[in-house]
Amino acid sequence: MTGRSTNPTYAVEGHGLVKTFGDFRAVDGIDIAVPAGAIYGVLGPNGAGKTTTLRMLLGIIDPDEGHRTLLGSDRPLSVAAQVGYLPEERGLYPSMKAAEAIAFMGALRGLPLKIGRDRARAMMEAHGMADAADKKVRELSKGMAQTVQLFGTLVHEPRLIVLDEPFSGLDAINQGKLEALIREQARRGVTILFSTHVIAHAERLCERIAIIAGGRIRFEGTVGEARDRLRPQVRLSTRVSDGSWRRALPADTVAENGAWHFSLPEEGIEPLLRALIDGQAGIESLSIERPGLHDAFVAIAGEAAAQAMAGATSASEEDA
Amino acid sequence: MIGLLRAALVIARRDFTAVVFSRAFIFFLLGPMLPILLGLAFGGMGSRIASTDMRPVIGVALPVDQAEGMERAYLALARRPGAAPLPKLLRIPALSQPRAVLARPDAGVTVVLSGSLDRPELTGKADDIDRVGSDVALLAALARTGDAFRLTPVTRHEIAASASGEGQGREVVGRAAQLIIFLLTMLLAGMVLSNLVEEKTNKIIEILAAAVPVDAIFLGKLLAMLAMSFVGILFWTSGGFALLLLVAGPGAHLPAPAVGWPAFLILAILYFAMAYTLLGSLFLGIGGQASTVREVQTLSMPVTMGQMLVFFFATFAAEHPGGWAEMGARLFPFSSPFAMIASAAESPALWPHLLALGWQALWVALLIRAGVLMFRRHVLKSGGPRRRLFSRAKG
Predict the structure, then answer these.
(1) A116, B160, B218, B240: which could join A103 in a potential S-S bond, CB 3.0 to 4.6 Å?
(2) Where are the domains of chain A?
(3) A203 by DSSP, 3-state: which?
């Protein structure tokens, strides 16, 4: 091992990562590459292997097979000072004061304590939490404690931020704040890698995503590319229900609620339109809808994975 | 290596301040004082009981001149061996009937001596006569010599030091140091067992493991507990020293160990640190596998028994110098600090201590590494079968 990767384009790379716990193969040959400066989402239901993949990439655990580089190093902890990590299971020392906890997390990654304390107070003040700076963690609400931990992830101004299920347990307002914070960090050129089982977050935030199910990557690319996996869906309603124009409808057409539903043909909508007009079908409405990421996810990962995601999302919303 | 130490110090600082600036630490400091105070209290009570004069009393029913002779002999003997080993004498009328005297509850005598100095007669219970018979014979013999009895004069040849006497004194110092280090280690190292439970129950371990090598977590925790122990030791020794001055006075003299007091004290601190970190790293490795306080409590008993065995081995080795036991105790890492501090009291050579400290430090490193590998494998579920003990702290 050289300790350095030759490709500076990617902040995080993993090749052929495999991790087995007993008889369970949690991660089964994952390849991942996170471009520097991107917001990258790892999407998948609970138990898909997201957390294990992140842990391997960060060097918390070693892969059984494959190799990874983090900010160019194959020894992830050697670049820990440039990385911020918010684990899925939040943890802070309950007897520590909030500002001290943030400074401590910075100190773990090489930030001098004094600077960490000053930054911690400034961050808390900027987010309307100045009064909580000297409160012990055990005295904070769950949301505040999560925010403190998030500040601890950012206090040393990392180049790469890894967030494992960052939205879980947050209410809608705090989810919005977190999204804003992620965008702000990305504007500064920081690479963001986060895992989530909430498709809407990935759809709103991510430039690129990886969809994981059953320990394997089922898709890797932009959100647009994922959505492009499915043909746009056409919904057509006509005044006349039958005629020669029906021969021009694609083979996958189904009639539902008085309308025709079918995928947009490869050659486009124009030939069909021409047939509808020539056959005097009487077009009442015609809409072409690009599939959402959810539809793409169902198509890529399967209906079972999508249902698992939906279940986890509603449980998470109940927590918040 | 510098990064590892820096990270270890961050962990150590957090742990140290969390413990030392907590209310519980006051109880920790005062805890060992309680047995001492109880000991002093019960000791005082015991000494009061012991000081109650339970010696048998001999009623001396002899003619006046003979009774006075007995008293002079008593005083002569009491000057050297002291009065404590002798029964007490109480003069009673010479014509007293021994049986009648003993029948009176207020007579205050155990046996009655009658007859004469040439033919002393004792009346009393058989076991009481057994207890005082020889003493009466000795006193009577001495009384018979009268003024002719003289102590033989002794000529004095004074020397500055006695190797034989110092050897005994040094042995005592060595054993005392062994015992103190053992007690402190037993008292303090056990706490390391539960050290990782907080991180695991509060889910902090993942934050730590993502930021620093697990080796740094282990080392930091050991350093914190060692520093905390030194705070406790400083507190207790200050108290102990004050107590020593109070009890023994400022002129109290302890025999100097072979390496001299300054070197001995430094070695004692170093060997305590080694004994502590050796056991501590083992306990940290074992305790790291426990996920609840209950599991830690279950582990405490065999761990304490193990410590006792090590101490007994080191003590046995000190009692059998020059044999396999001594060498074994010096080489076996867990008994090595105890064996070596005893050696520092009795032998002036310093180089063996450098070797021993290096050897012990090597074992500390090995034990930490083994503990880290166990922790990564069983707790973090990381590391395949190919990971070696000496592989770099990857992450």
Answers:
(1) A116
(2) 10-227, 233-289
(3) helix
What are the beta bridge partners of residue A196? A43
Q: Is the complex ipTM higher than 0.85?
A: no
B99 touches chain A (CB under 8 A): no
The residue of chain B with its CA nearest to that of A80 is B211
SS3 (DSSP) at B286: helix
The torsion defined by the Cα of B131, B134, B140 and B141, in degrees rounded to 10, comes to: -170
- If one counts every other C-beta atom within 10 angstroms of the C-beta of residue B242, the result is 10
Residue numbers in A near B381 (CB within 8 A): 21, 61
- β-strand partners of B64: none
Residues 65-84 of chain A whose Cβ lies under 8 A from any Cβ of chain B: 75-78, 80, 83
- Best of A93, A117, A142 to substitute, by most chain B Cβ atoms within 10 angstroms, is A93
Q: How many other β-carbons are positioned within 10 Å of the β-carbon of residue A76?
A: 22
Contact A80 B381 (CB under 8 A): no
Model confidence over B111-121: pLDDT tens digits? Answer: 999 988 888 99
Q: Give, to the nearest 10 degrees, the angle between helix B324-331 and helix B351-374.
A: 50
B343 neighbors B330 (Cβ within 8 angstroms)? yes
From chain B, the residues in CB contact with A193 under 8 A are: none
Q: Packing angle between helix A303-319 and helix A293-301, nearest 10 degrees?
A: 130
pTM over 0.95? The answer is: no
Q: Identity (one letter) of the amino acid at B3? A: G
- CATH of region A10-227, choose from 3.40.50.140, 3.80.30.20, 3.40.50.300, 1.10.3210.10: 3.40.50.300
Residues in chain A with pLDDT values less than 50: 1-6
Query: pLDDT by residue (tens digit) across A263-289?
Result: 888 888 899 999 999 988 889 999 998
The Cα-based distances of A204 to A40, A51, A201, B176 in angstroms read 11, 21, 5, 72
Q: Mutating which of A70, A77, A95 best tests the B interface, going by the most B Cβ atoms within 10 A?
A: A77
